[in-house]
Amino acid sequence: GAGTFARVYRAVHRETGQVVAVKVLRKRYSSKAPDYEPFVREGELGMTLRHPNIVPIYEVYSRDDTHFLVMEFVEGRNMREFVKIRKKLEPVEATRLMMDVAGGLRYAHERGLTHRDLRASNVLVSSRGRAKVVDFGLAAGDEEGKQDAGSESNPRTIDYAALERATGMRRDDARSDVYFMGCIFYYMLTGEPPLPEIKDRTRRLAKSRFTQVTPIQEFDPTLSSAVALVVNRAMDLDPEKRYQTPAAMLDDLA
């Protein structure tokens, strides 16, 4: 697979025969420390996280202008692709997958780590139908209190920056992750992203994006009020009315 900052390859470990995924930082980001250090921190952080719903990282390599991570290979698709193929998911399946995501994030949040880049493409759905969260690279900055990873110029976090503008809350606040958990749940249930997909940076940062979300009940009037309530509470623009932690959201999903 290919992303803005890295490419991911399927590989086989020579000694163990284990199939793994190797995430290689693109060359144009490999020579300057401000570019490659967050990637290396992602690997070091990932090696400390062990949870069934978080993709584990086994090894970090960083030398000269070569930087890569060796991680679990998940046979399946990311959530964005998974939902596109299925059009939308039945509430029972969507709820089960959302519980997986919430469980992984609860584990991370209890260790003081917020994701800060949570979106459908950073959730993998395995061939066994389980969801796993990937790419905790921006969480690595939390340990040192760094905010540079959340810059409005960083395409990976522009939606978090926009939410911060709209609500006044810090983008590394746990409730920011909760909002985007709600976005993923909304996407699974409707097949449509709740926030307009806009490429223009200025328009994407506009507060109005968050007030233009179509109520989920309008997409599916038959959706149970209990499920709709979870989505609406997770995506409440008032952080005080939102679920305060992934654990609280998980309790209502269960």
TrEMBL record:
InterPro entries according to UniProt: Atg1-like, Kinase-like_dom_sf, Prot_kinase_dom, Tyr_kinase_AS, Tyr_kinase_cat_dom
GO terms (BP aspect): regulation of autophagy
Transmembrane segments: none
GO molecular function terms noted in the UniProt entry: ATP binding; protein serine/threonine kinase activity; protein tyrosine kinase activity
One cellular component (GO) term of this entry: cytoplasm
Pfam assignment, any one: Pkinase
Annotated ranges, domain Protein kinase: 1-254
Coiled coil: none
Protein name per UniProt: Protein kinase domain-containing protein
Organism encoding this protein: marine sediment metagenome
